[in-house]
Automatic annotation (TrEMBL):
Keyword Phosphoprotein on entry: yes
Keywords per UniProt: Phosphoprotein
SUPFAM superfamilies found in the cross-reference section: ATPase domain of HSP90 chaperone/DNA topoisomerase II/histidine kinase (SSF55874)
Domain annotation Histidine kinase: ranges: 1-145
Record organism: Adhaeribacter arboris
Pfam family name, one: HATPase_c
PROSITE patterns associated with the record: HIS_KIN
Protein name: Histidine kinase domain-containing protein
InterPro entries (UniProt xref): HATPase_C_sf, HATPase_dom, His_kinase_dom
Length: 145
């Protein structure tokens, strides 16, 4: 893509590359669900700076949030290194933030927070309309029509 810098195609190619990456991520999620059903899902923990990792993942969505006039805020109380599965955490957090962007209205706000008590709590909250309590059974059950 570097040889196309400054051309009208650069932005289109960047979008295509991002979308291809997201598609690959979806395929990997389907494979992980299959492994989970077969009780073969493995956790690949590594030690790292959780605050920076979450900040970098949230930053991926900053441009889209700005384009939609949505405030995207990240707050963290965590310090030091933690053990976590970077691939799975990135996938989960990306899905939550992407959904929040999808359902948060213009001039709304999304807050990602990382809190530490006796455990680590990662929260994604938004000012979107949410969903009705009676619909929650559909969200929490398997695939449904």
């Amino acid at each position: 893509m570097q040889y196309l810098a400054g051309t009208p195609y650069q932005k289109t190619l960047a979008t295509m590359e991002r979308n291809a990456g997201q598609l690959l991520g979806l395929i990997n999620q389907v494979l992980d669900f299959s492994k989970l059903d077969a009780q073969m899902l493995t956790v690949q923990e590594s030690r790292g700076n959780l605050t920076e990792f979450v900040a970098q993942t949230v930053q991926i969505f900053q441009e889209e949030a700005n384009a939609k006039s949505i405030g995207l805020i990240y707050q963290s109380e965590a310090t030091g290194d933690y053990w976590f599965d970077a691939g799975k955490l990135e996938r989960i957090l990306s899905n939550l933030v992407a959904n929040a962007l999808k359902f948060t209205p213009t001039d709304g706000q999304i807050t990602v927070s990382l809190q530490v008590t006796d455990r680590v709590l990662l929260t994604v909250a938004d000012t979107g309309r949410g969903y009705q309590q009676k619909s929650s059974r559909l969200y929490l059950s398997g695939f449904s029509r």
